[in-house]
Amino acid sequence: MVRTWLSCLAAALLAGLAAPGLAQRSTPVPTPGLAPSHVDAEGRLVQDWGTLGIALSGEGVRTGPPSVSAVSVAPGVPGVRVVRDGGVVALEKAVFRAPVWPAGLDVVTVRLASNTGRDAPVRLTVQLPQGARVGRRLVTLGGRALVGLPESPTPVREVREWGHWDEATDLPGWARPESESDPAFRNIRAGMGGVPIAYRFSVQPGAAANVFLGFCESHWQAAGQRPLVCQVEGAPLQEVDPIARWGVHRPGVVLFAARDANGDGKLDIAVLPKPGAPDTNPILNAIWLFPAGAAPTADAVVSGRMNALATRVVDVGGPGDQALEAAGALLYDLVVPSAGMELTLLVASPGASVELPGRTAWTPETLRAAAARVMAEWRGPASR
Amino acid sequence: MGHEHRCRGCLSRRQCLQFISGAAIAATAASGELAGAAPAVRDRGAQSVDPASLRPAPRVRVAAALLRMPTPYWLGWPGTTFDLDRHSRQVHAHIEASRRALGIDIEVADQPIQDEAGLNSLMQRVAGSRPDALLVVLQHLACWGWVDRLSREVKVPLLVVSPVGTSFTHTMVGISRRPGVYVVSSLEWPTVEDGLRMVRAKRMFEETRILWIHGNQRNETVLDWLGTRVRQIPRHTFNEWFDREPVTAEVRDVAADMRRRARRIVEPTADDAVNAARAYTTAKRLLAAEQANALTMDCLGMVGARLVPTPPCGAFMLLLDQGITAGCEADLFGATSLMLTSYLLGRPGFLSNPVAETAKNLLVSMHCTSGSRLWGFDKRPAPYIMRDHSESSLGVAMQVLWPVGDAVTYVRFTHAGEVAVDTGKVVSNVATPPAGGCRTAIEVAIDGVADVRDVLPLHHQVVALGNHRRVVRSFCQLYGINTIHSPAAAA
Question: Using CA atoms, how far apart are residues A154 and A108, in angstroms rounded to an integer?
Answer without folding.
Answer: 17
